[in-house]
Amino acid sequence: xxxxxxxxxxxxxxxxxxxxCLAGPVVAGACILPQTYDLPGxxxxxxxxxxxxxxxxxxIRSQAVAWAVGLSWxxxxxxxxxxxxxxxxxxRAVRALKLSPRFLRIDGNKIIPAHALGLGVSQEWVIGxxxxxxxxxxxxxxxxxxxxxxxxxxxxxxxGYGLERHMGYGTKEHMEAxxxxxxxxxxxxxxxxxxxxPAVQRQGRLI
Length: 207
Hints:
Blueprint: E1 11-17, E2 26-32, H1 50-63, E3 66-72, H2 74-80, H3 82-96, E4 103-107, H4 114-117, E5 122-126, H5 129-132, H6 134-157, H7 163-166, H8 172-181, E6 201-202, E7 205-206
Parallel strand pairs: 1-4, 4-5
Antiparallel strand pairs: 1-2, 2-3, 6-7
Helix pairs in contact: 1-6, 2-3
Function: Endonuclease that specifically degrades the RNA of RNA-DNA hybrids.
Main location: cytoplasm
Subcellular location: Cytoplasm
């Protein structure tokens, strides 16, 4: 895709965290970086350690022209599906920016639909943008760090699942906890691994 004819401080990068989790919200970050900044090691949040993300998090917030996060909680995810919920979270993040961007660059292979964005702003998707577009990388770090901190807080409210360790992803520990305790209010009930599997009929018996 051709780069938009706007300066960097008019373009917001957008990315999400937690889309593949079994529990917790999906969180989107939106970030507009200035033309010059000092963010050593900025990269896709998945390529950074938790410590490095925590170091970058306040630096991004202090140096960004504007930044925001948007959330979609499990009830909404179950109601509209995870893709639509991700779009809604992205739209909320963009609309929460203190400065309206003139262009959006979205990590992945889809732009935000008009109904979810709610703004008349041009946009493009960028595959691998979280590792190649600094504003998207910054949005990625914001979303991931904000979400991880939130999951630690939610773990205290919903103990026994280990949310503070796996952050809601479908680890062995998490799956065993769901099987033992049943899902909590933070679980996505439509996701495989959380929703009850239908009984299988075999030789005239339900098992």
